UniProtKB/TrEMBL annotation:
Organism, as annotated: Haloferax sulfurifontis ATCC BAA-897
Lineage of the species this protein comes from: Archaea, Methanobacteriati, Methanobacteriota, Stenosarchaea group, Halobacteria
Name of the protein in its database record: NADH-ubiquinone/plastoquinone family protein
One GO BP: ATP synthesis coupled electron transport
Stored InterPro entries: CPA3_Na-H_Antiporter_D, NADH_UbQ_OxRdtase, ND/Mrp_TM
Subcellular location: Cell membrane
Amino acid sequence: MSTLVIAPLLVALVTAILTLLTRPSDILQRTVSLLGGVAYLVAVAALFDAVILPLGGESTTLVYQVSNWAAPFGITLVADALSVFMLALTGFVSLLTLGYSVASVGSFGQRLSYHTLFHFMVVGVTGSFLTGDIFNLFVWFEVMLMSSYILVLFYSGREHTRAALNYVVLNLIGSAVMLVAIGGLYSTTGTLNMADIARRLAEPAAYDIALLPTLGLSAVLFSVFALKAGLAPFQFWVPAAYRAAPSPVTAMLAGVVKKVGVYAIVRLYFTVFAAASIDIGFLGITGDSFLGFFGPVMFAMAAVSIVLGGIGAVGRDDVDGILAYSSISQVGFIVLPLAVAATAPSEAVRALGVTAALVYAFNHGIAKSLLFLASGTLKDAVGSDRLSDLGGLADRAPVLAAGFLLGALTLIGVPPLSGFFGKYLVFQAAAEAFAAGAAGAGLALAVALAGAILTIAYYTRAWNAVFWGRPSDLVDAALPERWAVGTGDVAMTDGGDDGLKRLELTAQVTVVVALAVAAIGFGIGFEALFGAADAAAHAALDTNGYVDAVMHGPGVGLESGGGGH
């Protein structure tokens, strides 16, 4: 059974290689890429079934020891409810984004490198979610980032080159800092395996571990994860990179890649470093654990991200700019309940806070991918995403308008869309912490309320400018008649023979609609989403269970064929 852990990783890797080998045939390469995306989702679904289902029961942890080298000496891959929950988001979003890519990316770009790079990025994301040691977390981060560097630079224009250069330099610095922090943690703890680190931190005297240096190194590592997630004050790379990359790449960066940083925060600080007990008194931050230190830090970063990103989005004059700054604000909403959970006075509130963060991350992955793809479709159909160039698209492109509206309402938090429950859980976690007398919980409620108001403001402005009112001259020229999926031709915005045909644009809108339907479906069937997120949260908080599964469970390598834990 434990061999199932490596299935998504192998599928993504094989697909990346096959798309490289099939470059001479455009149709064959696209077919292989899409089939690989389907196979990846099937592998993730099988892993989801083995680990989390049936919902409401006790989740399972599957462990794979590469080459049968037992932990902590070998390379360990771990599939528990937390990692599988994040893989489910990856599989769903990546498949739909691939479908969009086939219709939106030019033939030369697809044949040259696009699909290979895309699948290698999925390989890096998958490895990051499954790895059981911090050094291989660094390795998988690099696999993911190296692909994203080229994809951000994909169009090779002046603006794209500048954005990619900033993105690459900043992430290379972050990677160097991450490697130094990992080396320091190995020096202080004597191990790289996450479960073994947790076990040793629980008994520092037995392993001669100095906790204060370990706390300092974990804080350095936290800054790297905050950078990857786009949290303030490390958010400045987000707007330029998101606007420069092709729309499906931006959808993956915002919807999936950013969540790797969030996952790393949950896995390391709630599962691994939470095992340590230490009395803290530093700059007004007090506590008896590592989480007591990181809770206020998370809160400060989340609060600044929510407000700064929201204000930035309100002031943008283009759709992609609004969405990019919105992503900064929305990742603050994901981390805010984690800050509440870190300082929660009870285990119930802590579990609720982590569950709220995971539900919000899942909803954000779907809704923000939808919105970036809708923006890309808008640019392909009309030729611009500047608010001053647009207007009246609700009449000229009603299906696209409906998809954009549902994505915006999901992030605003309107029932019965899934985003309503995510935002409700964020408020509920803060409210229950406040009722229990947790320090700062009242301020967390105020910040969440301010962020919710800003979200309404910038999406209302975008909707009014782009879809309401009289069609602009540019919209009139590009869409002289009402267009909906399957009806009428769309005028070419450049007047050439290489403009988007109706079938390609219809495929793009179909993907947007599919994501909108998912937002509705996960809202109506929210009980299932909550059950999976709740199982993931309890897996994240079950340090002893994680340690037992990795260090003592029957994880199987390549030469055996036995089961998992």
